[in-house]
Structure formats: C-alpha cells, structure tokens
Design brief:
Chains A, B, C, D: One of its GO terms (molecular function) is 3-hydroxyisobutyrate dehydrogenase activity. The structure is a homotetramer of 317-residue chains. The first copy, chain A, is an alpha/beta fold. Chain A is built from 14 helices and 9 strands.
Chain lengths: 317, 317, 317, 317
C-alpha cells in the first residue's frame, strides 16, 4: 500500500469512526486481541472486557472503553463479539451472574467466534432469542498470524437475514466470511474441517514414515503423493516431515503453528457432537486419542504436525 | 484422434514393429489385457501367457504368440512384463516349476507391475539377479479406464541404469513413469499412497456425515472443506457423498471405480510392510479393518468411496 | 428359604410396614417397574410418578400413591429414588418447571439410579445441596432379570455418612450395595466397568473368530482361553460364539441380554468423561465406534455379544 | 522337594537315561536353555545346537553332545525340539543349507516350540512330510520362570496319532500339554490368546486410568471390576496399576514379566494371520499399534502392563 492510499484510507476511517456505533468485544486473548485491534483500525469504537484486567489495558490506550463485566458491555453496545477458550467460559459470559443476558438490549446482535460445541451454540441462541436479541456462531479458521493480518476465515451460523449485519463487522477481521446455515452450523463446519485435517495429517505422517522405512526419499515420496490420489493439504501445503518443505512448522522443530493441545480440544468437540448425533467417526475418534496420547507424552505445545515425530522414533530393540 | 493421424501412426507402428524385439506379457486379466494391447499398438511383438487359456485367445487374433508357461515366455523374449493379482501368484510365475526363472536368458529385463509386498519384490529381485537378469517392480496407479487409455502411472523400483530401458516399454502403457529408487520402492510408493488415500477417504466420509447430521448442506460443506485445511483428493475430486459431484462412483450408486475388496488388499500389504518394519500406522491399520468389515457386510464389490454409505445409515432406535 | 422362616419374615415385614415412611419413586420403565415393586414388597409405601401415566396404573393397584409431577413426589416423600433413561431426562426431573427441587424438603435423601454422565451427577448434587437436601448417585449393574429378583448391584457415590440410609432402601432391590466415594463415583465405577466389558467382549469376539478361521474348534479355543491369560467374563461367562455355552444370548440368536444400543449409550458416557478429563482411551473409543456402526447396521436391539456376528460374516468375494 | 525324594527321583532318572534315545534341541536362548535342561533332568540324552556356540557350552558340561548344525542334530536324533525367535530363523533351521531337512531320518518327530506365523508352520509341515517325517507346532505359554520350573503350557498342533509321542517329551518341560488340532492350530491358539490378552490389558489400563481421574480409589475400582462383568486376568491377576497388587510387574516398576516388544511381536503375528484369512480384528489391530508406539517411545523392555504408565501421564497444559 503506498502512502497516498494510506492517507486516503485513514481519512476514510476517521470519517467513518464518527458515524459508527460502538461494538462490544469480550475475550482479548491471543486471538481476540488482534481481532479487536482490527475493529479499532476500521474505525469502530470498541467496548472491551476480559476476565484478566491487564488484557484490557492496551485497549484503553487505543481509546477503547473498558468495562467491568459482560453485562456492562451489553448495556453500552448492541453489537458484541465474543472470543473465548471453551464452552463453559462462553456459557458463563452469556448466562452467568454478570453475563451479557443480564442487560442485553432488544435487537442486539451477539456474534460468538469461540470454537465450542454446536449444541451449546444452539442453547445460547435460544436463550438470546428469548431476550429479543440475535445470536450467531462464527468460529474462525486461521491462527494468530491470520488474526493480525485480518485475513481469518469466518464460518457463520444463524438467521440468514442477519448475515449481512454480521458480515459488516467480520469483514474487518477476516478475508473470508461464509454463511453456513442455521445456528450451530458455523461450529459444525469448523469441527468437521478440523477433524478431517487431523485425520489426514496423521495419515500423511504414517504414509511418509512407512515410505521412508521402506527406502523412499521423503521429498520424492511427497511429490508422488501430491500428484496422486493421496494428495491432501497436509501433504502438499503443510508437510510434517522435516526437510520436505520450507516455511512450515516441521522445518522449525514444530514450533509455532497449531498446537497439539488445541487440536485435541477440537477433536474432543467433534467427538461430543458425534456422540450426541450417534454418528460413527472411527478415524476421527482414533485421531482424538492419538493427540490425547501426544499431549500426555510431552507434545502438547508442539505444532500438530509433530505427530510425525511422535510416530517416527526408532524402537530401542 | 482423427483418421489421418491414426493412419500415419499405424504406419509408424508397422515400421517400428519390424525392428522391435518381442516383449513377453504374463497375466492378461482386467488390467493386463488393455496394457498388453497398448504394447501391440505400439508395434511390439507380444509373447503372451495367462493361466486361463481363453484370456490369450484375443491376443492370438492380434498376432501375438501364445505360449504354454512363463518358462516358455522367458525362452522367447528377453523383456517380460508380469501383471498378477497377488504375491503368491507372482512368486509362482517367477520361481514355480514352469516359472520364468527356469529359462530366463542372461541380461533379460523382467518388469513386475503386480501390486505385491515390497519384501517379495526384493526376494524375487535377488533370485533374478542370481540368473544374471534384471528385475524391476513397477506397480501402477489408475484403473481399467487408464489402462485402456494408456495413461497409467508407473512407480518404478530397481537399478537406476536400467530405468530407461524399462521406461521405453512402460511409456507405451502409461503417461507417467516415475523412478522411485532401489527394488521394492515402486511397491512402497504405491502402498503408501493407497494407505493415505484410504485414510483420507474414510475421514472425508466421516466429516461429511457428521456435518450433514449437524445440519450442514453437503455441497456447501464440501466447498468449505475444499477451500480449507481439510481439502484432499477424496473431498475435491472423488467426493463420496451422492449429489455433491458428478461423474464419480458416488453419483452412480458406487458402481465402477476401485472396489472395497481391492482397497482391503492394498491395506493388507501396507499392514504387512508396517509390521515387518515395525512402523506404527494406527490410522492405516484402522482403515484396513474398516474395509475388512465392509467386505464382510456386503460392500466388497462397491467402490471404496461407499464407506460413506457404510457409516451413514440411521440407527433403528 | 423354608416356609417357617418365610412366615416369620412376612410378619416382620408387615410390622415394619406400619412404621415405614413413604419412599418416592420416579421413572417406572423396564428397570424402575420391578425395582419399585421390590420396595412395595419390603413394606415401603411408594409415592410414584412416571411421565407416561399408564406406567403408574399398576402401582395404583398395588396401593401406591400416584402423583402428577416430580415436585408432587418431593412434597410427599423425603426419600426419593429416580431411575431415568438419560442425562437430559434426569436434569429435567430434578431442575425442571415441575421438578423435584421445586418442593424438596430439607434433609431429604435423593438417590439417582439412572446411568448418566458423572459430571451431571455432580451438578445435580450441588443444586440439591443448596436446597438443604442430600443427593447420591447409585447406578445399577444387572438387567431386568436381576431387577425382578432383587439382586442388582448398586454402585453408590455421595457423602459417606448418608450411605447407611441409602443402603437401607437399596438393599430391598439389590444384593450388592457398594460405596464408591464422593458424588459421581458410582457413575464412574459403572462406566469404567462397562467400557472394559465392551472392550473385552469385542476382543473375545475377534479372538474366537480369528481362531475359528485358523482351524480351531470354538469350544476348545474357549477352554484354552479360559485357562490362560486371555480369560475374561466375556469368554468364560457370556461367550459370544453360538454353541460354546448354554443359557447366554449367543445361544438364543442374541435375543435378550444387554442391547447394543444400551452399550453404545454407556460407551458414549465413558467417551464424554474421558474427553472432559483428557484421559486417553484408545480402545474404549474404538469400542464405542464399533457399537455405533453395529447400531447403524441393524444390530441395535440385539445383545451386545452379537459383535461376534457383526465381525464374522464371510466376504462375498 | 525334600532330599530323600530328590535322591529317589535322581536314581529313577539315571535308570531311565540308560534306556532313553537321544533328543535334539535347537535354540538354547532364554527359553530354550531351561527347557533343554529339564529334558536332561528327565534323563534324556540331548543333542544340542545353537547359532551362538557359547550357548552350547553349558550343555557340554551337562553331558550333552554339541553339534555344528541343525543337519548334524537331525543325523543323530530322531526326535528334535526347536525353540527359535522368529519365522525366518525357524525357516532357516529347517530348510536352510545346513538345515534339519538336509539329513532328517524317515519317521523322525520334529516339534517346533517357536512362536511363529501358523501359515509358516503349515509350510514347514508339508516340507517335513515330503521327507517322510512328522512336524508338530507346540508354542508355549508362560515365561522364563515357568520354563525353569517345568510348568509351561504347550499348545500342540499336528496329526493326532503323534500327539502321545510329543506329549512324552513336552511333559518334561510343561505341566499342561493341550492338543489343539491340525498343524498350525497350536500357533493359532497362542496368538488368539495373546491378542485377547493385549486387548484386555490395554482395556484394564484405560478403565483404571479413567476411574482414577474420575475420583475412584484404584484398589476399590479393581475390586468392583473383579466382581463385575469387567473382570479379566489383567484386572484380577496381573493388575497394571502400581499399588493394587503385589508380586506383579506393576509393583516393581514394570520390570520382569513379558516385554512390550514381545507382545508387539505376537500381535504382529496375529495381524498377519488376520490379514491372510481376511478376518476383521479392529481392537487387535489397534492393540498392535499401541504396543508399536510404546516401543517407539522407550517402553520396549518394560513389561506389557506398562501400557498403564504410557497412557497415564498428565498433560503439561
């Protein structure tokens, strides 16, 4: 972006800011922090809350209003985005003693970008609807880098008429905003994708490991898979074998990326959804267990592609 | 191909035929038949053998010499291609009472395109080498259609200096001939690819099934997976859910394609190789069991993408 | 028991009846019905409720008071037993609009014999405690036959001081009443047992099936396993192979017994508990998926030992 | 045994020795050594061979004849026992350049106590039969301790008329000699038992681990399982949780016992047999993979009950 355009944009933003109504943001952690900053950059006055007060301080300096509880946010803003680590946290922020629902205004738009059980999203939607407000689930794909760059993907579930209103805000934080269907389908899309991702990552690790032990060169094997029916994102874009690709966690001792513990969490959600809907997911279930075992064996903080390393080590006999 | 080019080609072939030395072909089944025909089309005099005499008849009409045993083929041709259904058949054709090795000439080139245990390929290579001849494994990827069209992929293992000689013949039958390394690595590449294929196919079936039960539209879910990290050949090229894609077995009641029983066979080979090399393949192993259960439940002859159907059916309660 | 003792006992019961305070019983289904009858037989005046009024009628004839809601039961009895099919039903009976907690008296003893998620038991215990009452979980082992005969096993979780009071009632319905620890541990013991049961049943089915295909006589194989380290309840008491034992479901086309769909439910609870506590359960998880697939393939109502039949059928090729 | 009886026994043995014909013994490793010694103790002149000459030395001191090859053994003894670590070793000892079959006498009885693929046993039996001799497979259950004490269990496959002749020798080394059926069924019985053992051991470890995390006391949980349908040899005789039982490997940091690497080997044989007979073994297959992963993570030499430790460790997050 050259400077001229930047100035023009900035003035556009400043002008826009004057007319924009505030947006609440609850949950300013690793992901929520850069997401909320992108809202500020796009000129939205932000009403912030986080359970850890220090997480809010930075936003105070950016001109955001900091509040004492989710209820306070709901009192001051009629559009709120929540970004929380788990189902229980999310339930608490919405329905707790100082939760959003205590003071939510009629007609408010509440967008939850946390990754949680879709059944919980549906429960929350019902509770929100009773208060005359609207709930949408909008979990994200893409990590901290994408959150900073503003090119997350949002998978959105909820009443279709409200999608445009949600999209207006989400576009400030993501480059891809997909409408998935009724409430809960945003979560559903995300956990289905991540379950398939985990399965094909472990499958890629197994196939590469087996091929190497049978005498194949890893780069050559990756090339063959990628031009054949074994091709997948884990083999052609994020190969788990050190030395095959550059710029991926396997090239950097499995640092950065998407931690095994986060993958285990998403697979746990997939498992719960599958159990509730009586859907057989034999490999998804096994993938969950493998990431669980990895977490128990010291791989919790490594990128999820470290499953190659977990499976590879030589027997001592 | 228009007629003119066809005539020119034909005359080229005729000319070539005059100078070409014969090629033996053993195993004229579903795959071997069209492969051998492509050799004939390219002007190679073919010396044919199959355990079922009727399989040879067609080749007699095409001008091929038909023989009584693999040994007879070895007596009359110093380049031989074998295409057989399993390890024991292949061992028998090479080392049996009337096997190739009984009369193989020094310097002969023996190319095995069967899909078998790479450890067996290595054993055969040793036995062939003792007779002063050369063995290469060259299993194929692609089904009967690709065999007819002459655009199979060959994955070739063996001494590198002999690769060009092998390639000359294999190019008549395939559009892609890849050198993989020492003897056995052709098999290794194929079974690693097919193991990963089975895993990602089952994973795709699970993810699509779970998503549908959670309220997602199948076409939309496929689109989301294909633009995300869940993308794989099974989701974007061969989707197992009826109605998502056209021209794939799932659009045709899972007829045609690559049968579940063949996939179970290849996964059995992967399992044996993994056991022999002490390589953990938890999902590959589970995929093997799932195709085994499918075969036991009436899916043996359906395309392997029918795993979606196997997992989908509703509980009766 | 000879007649004299019986008469003496009967008169003891009659005397006792006069002085016994009423016991509430909520959930008069397949299991609850014979359990409540055993309370009546032991002289307890029963205050009954079931969501299906016809389920209560029989109890009216037996002299029980029938009420209109769980709240009504709580108004009239300070000891209540609940026996319900799932977590949501149980939550509703306790915390719903006409639930027990609406009218529970201080000091009441509430015993839940449903098999549910132990985390739900803990939540209910907290809610009950807030009302000044006591909650214990006491799921049962043993089927309808044991319920009728009054020899169920109860696994009881809750405050230890209250165990004797609970045991007084449970002894009328079961021959074995085991104190397991704090609230939720009754459920925990049950789901751990049933998870191990499912695993060893499937394992027995696999081992028997493999042995038979390798040429062993099933009775001989069962005998060898039962005198060796493969011995388990599924091999020596409930063998899944027809013809090996008499008086078990495998001798009766897998009718009766413990249905596959019930096993799938318990394995789902084990899975949820394992996910919540981040415990790896690779075989428990796979057992869950196998019962899920069985239910999807028409085995929902057969005894869970029918997994032998599910795995056994011959391939068609 | 008091001294008097010992002297009497010794004199019986000495007398018997005079009339007993020699027995060959090939493979004097951890298991073969004490087994062969028990033959000596029972008065059989032993003709010994091992690929490591030092393994024979001890037997020379005991009065055994030591030979240079399996062929030499076959020349001097018409009853031979083989105890070798794997299928390839066994094939070599029978059919190699200096193998038994080079000099086996007509009517000889060859008993193989190695644990190998039953398909290999059948192949060897055919080759032996061609030479006019008899082959039986007789793998053992019980470890080094049982081998020393002479109370191994032998599972014997082969022609029934020869069973008594085999039993005469095997009774010197084992307290339990079971006839299983045709050749290969001894191996089949052993691998089926060990597959079920591995499954129920992992299941026990999972159930105990889950129960402990849900708040149950390990000893109490073991007691409950052992009086319920979860009962198995792994829970009641060889419990994998430290502190639950005494005198088992879990009480001794998983030292001694049956190593994970040996279990992985037997599960590999079960897997190969299942693949060859197209038998679905979903849990057996997963058990194999779990022991494979354990071996890759440093548990190769620990007792196989250490799977509890493998699964138990806490996540670092």
């Amino acid at each position: 972006m050259n400077i001229l355009i930047f100035i023009v944009l900035k003035s556009v933003c400043s002008r826009a800011m004057a007319s924009k109504t505030p947006v609440g943001f609850i949950g300013l952690g690793n992901m929520g922090n850069p997401m909320a900053k992108n809202l500020v950059k796009h000129g939205y006055p932000v009403i912030a809350y986080d359970v850890f007060p220090e997480a809010c301080k930075e936003f105070q300096d950016l001109g955001a209003q900091v509040t004492d509880s989710p209820a306070d946010v709901a009192e001051r803003a009629d559009r709120i985005i929540t970004m929380l680590p788990s189902s229980p946290n999310t339930i608490d922020v919405y329905t707790g003693a100082n939760g959003i629902l205590k003071k939510v205004k009629k007609g408010s738009l509440l967008i939850d970008s946390s990754t949680i059980d879709p059944a919980v999203s549906k429960e929350l939607a019902k509770a929100v609807e009773k208060m005359g407000a609207v709930f949408m689930d909008a979990p994200v794909s893409g990590g901290i880098g994408a959150a900073r760059a503003g090119n997350l993907t949002f998978m959105v579930g909820g009443v279709e008429q409200e999608f445009d209103a949600a999209k207006e805000l989400l576009t400030c934080m993501g480059s891809n905003v997909i409408y998935c269907g009724e409430v809960g389908t945003g979560q559903a899309a995300k956990i289905c994708n991540n379950m398939l991702l985990a399965i094909s990552m472990i499958g890629t690790a197994e196939a590469m490991n087996l091929g190497i032990r049978l005498g194949l060169d890893p780069k050559l094997l990756a090339k063959i898979l990628n031009m054949s029916s074994g091709r997948c994102w884990s083999s052609d874009t994020y190969n788990p074998v050190p030395g095959v690709m550059e710029g991926v966690p396997s090239a950097n001792n499995y640092q950065g990326g998407f931690g095994a513990t986060l993958m285990a969490k998403d697979l746990g959600l997939a498992q719960i959804s599958a159990t509730n809907t009586k859907t057989p997911v034999p490999l998804g279930s096994q993938a969950h267990q493998i990431y669980r075992m990895m977490c128990a064996k010291g791989y919790a903080l490594k990128d999820f592609s470290a499953v190659f390393q977990f499976l590879r080590e030589e027997e001592t006999l």
